[in-house]
Write a structure and sequence with these properties.
three-stranded antiparallel β-sheet; four-stranded mixed β-sheet; mainly beta
């Protein structure tokens, strides 16, 4: 716009198993141990997740494709999250931390920083 570029959105790359694959299966759901966190600024918490596969007799894709879970914060000025799911409270406010499975399936947890 007017000679400037703007970033409108960011997407997550999904790694999907084909339907004819007999060795691997896609995630069908993610379960979080906690769906909301309340933290004081500067404090940390860990978000724990489990994945359920479409076919339980098959394996999930290897980590060479993508890690089992990827994490993102909706507002990094309120809370950040690292690649292992460690949430760090930054400033007062509310945001969401998204947990993404390899195929792009996501679940969110609410983070309130006081």
């Amino acid at each position: 716009v007017d000679g400037k570029s703007y970033k409108l959105a960011k997407t997550v790359t999904g790694h999907i198993v084909g339907r004819k694959n007999k060795k691997y299966s896609n995630p069908k759901s993610i379960k979080l141990t906690k769906s909301s966190f309340s933290l004081a600024a500067g404090k940390t918490a860990s978000i724990k997740a489990k994945v359920t596969l479409v076919n339980k007799k098959r394996k999930s894709l290897t980590d060479a494709h993508a890690p089992l879970f990827r994490y993102a914060s909706s507002d990094k000025s309120i809370a950040t999250v690292d690649s292992k799911g460690k949430i760090t409270a930054v400033n007062a406010g509310t945001c969401y931390v998204y947990v993404y499975a390899k195929n792009g399936y996501a679940k969110k947890a609410k983070v309130t920083v006081k």
